[in-house]
Hints:
Blueprint: E1 3-7, H1 11-24, E2 29-34, H2 37-47, E3 51-55, H3 63-73, E4 82-87, H4 91-99, E5 103-106, H5 111-127, H6 135-146, E6 164-169, E7 172-177, E8 181-187, E9 190-195, E10 199-202, H7 206-209, E11 218-222, E12 225-228, E13 232-237, E14 243-247, E15 253-256
Parallel strand pairs: 1-2, 1-3, 3-4, 4-5
Antiparallel strand pairs: 6-7, 8-9, 8-12, 9-10, 11-12, 13-14, 14-15
Amino acid sequence: MPSCLIAEDEPLLAAGLRADLAALWPELTVAATVGDGASAVERTLALAPDVVFLDIRMPGSSGLEAATMLAEDWPDGRAFPLLVFVTAYDQYALQAFDAQAVDYLVKPVEPPRLAACVQRLKARLADRVPHGDSIAQAVEQLRALLGPSPAGTPAATAAPRLEVIQAQVGAVVHLVPVEEVVYFEAADKYVRVITAEREHLIRLSLRELLPQLDPARFWQVHRGTVVQARLIASAKREETGKVTLTLKGRPEKVVASRLYAHLFKGM
């Protein structure tokens, strides 16, 4: 029996989609209905449904951000769910979805359009190998949709470049030249600033920090990690599609997720 998860923050729209699916696809089980991006990721990872309907605009993480998290955290050896994005009308977004052959529905969802989507989903599920590498195509599609500014982050030119990080500890402010930073790592609403000698914590989110960094020098390698490119000593590609990075001046390894593995190719 196929199963799905519905991520929609408007209860009436979620109930309507659930009722329409029951009429069009009676054998489909709705495993869960959630109203925000974080819950969509958590429940999808736990339940592993065959299909996920993701509202583009939800509290917290957007539908695209939730899809990105799923692609990064999806366990190996398990078929990745088919994604259907639900969006208000936006011609640019719809053209992007069309170009990548990504399933989408426009609010309010019309039964004929949903019926066509259901037929496509049924055909794709019938052709899918149970434990095949279904995540590879999803990663390529998401990478193209996200473009140069991952997961809806502001454009890289939106803010002046940082040259010095001011990290406060008590009454003392440490001035850390950006050139000395090996990598940045998200820590809830903070960011860890890691140098060869020590680490600092700044009251800034990675989303806010990213536009202030030079993308030619600092590469995002995971939704929560940005590494200074010149301080990457080596990159080892794993069978999972992820890449393990060895850094200059630091003993720990850093993992580049599937979405950013394409950055590391031999010349």
